[in-house]
Fold each of these.
Amino acid sequence: MLDKEKIIVEICAPSVQSAINADLAGADRIELCQNLNEGGTTPSFGAIAYCTEHLGLKTNVLIRPRTGSFCYNEAEFETIKHDVKICKSLGVNGVVVGFLNPDLTIDVQKTKEIVEIAAPMEVTFHRAFDICAEWKVALEEIITCGCSRILTSGTKPTALEGKEILNQIVQQANGRIVILAGGGINYANAEALVNSTGVKEIHASCTAVVNENEQDVSLEQLLDESNFSHKESNVNLIKKLLSLPLYTNQLN
């Protein structure tokens, strides 16, 4: 059975409007990013500033200068450090990063350096954790580096598929770091996932396609779907997630 400890809901927001929708729906926190269809990259500083200045929820920001591997060269790491410093100056709650070595072990040196630069902001180590060679070793190293939480799907494509390992991660962490479950979570599976894993925070995008082709202009004229449609975190889907007994029982 669930205890009365609050379950935190973080919405992965791939745009300013997605962040606004998360705030309107009552989410606790966002992970602001862009290019979610490619795994997510660093959002614009204008987007970050808007969220910290106008929204009531906590804003965490994904810092990822490109898609692809999580092994960064010197120039890329300098970019990451600069982005983290700007996030701090804009009043961001936390940053979301992930650094691996070519052998898929944690790049402890880079992780520690970012934690130091980011302080007092929170640092979440993202799902790069899920492709580590040995998650049990990686967990201890991330804790040692001083990160606030780990975003993980239990080393599987989705959190539901990784629920057994998620439970093991929560047990090994033993309160030393927050385990944020993410990957395919929605209103249909969130309650069962929390019950079976013991996580206290979940991460969901709750996106829906927004079609802006209101004039019914031909696809030939518009050249490509990306010129008139995009995915956006949806107020109703987020509210549906938050309406589960998992969350409403916390109010009793």
Note: Strands lie at 8-13, 29-32, 58-62, 94-97, 122-125, 149-152, 178-182, 201-204, 207-211, 229-233.
Amino acid sequence: MVDGTDVTSLATHQRVARGLGYVPQGRQIFGAMTVKENIETGLVVRGKSEIPREIFDLFPILADFEHRRGGNLSGGQQQQLAIARALASDPKVLLLDEPTEGIQPSVIKDIARLLRDIRSIRNLCIVVCEQVLSFVLDIADRILVMEGGKIVHADTREHADEAAIARFLAV
């Protein structure tokens, strides 16, 4: 549900139009397109063509690399590009699937800070599917642990029992 509307059966572009932003696992940016062109693909659903200044304020490295091909960016920069592209659609809910995958630890902290900034600036709901517990604890208000498609543990960040959650994440 997004803003009271069930988006389950809608086509992808319709979900985006209803306010669902999505950053897929593996980022899936367009490697042959420039940073600017990648972000512009997120504008289409809103009928806009100009990238809001706020995007480049949040992601200054992307402003510096605006004309660089997405495929030539580092993994962390590509993740920032994927988030910027999703934000360009002006979502009400932002979904991120494994945003720390393939990202070096120092950049993971930057992405956590960035998500906290986005949440406070945009006042939007951010849903993250993630296995790196330290990252989750750094950004989450609520933590849900799923196993076999069912919620097996739920808590607020303030009351989160790291040891109990970590038992679910053990391989």
Note: The helical segments are 12-17, 35-43, 53-58, 60-64, 75-88, 105-122, 133-139, 162-169.
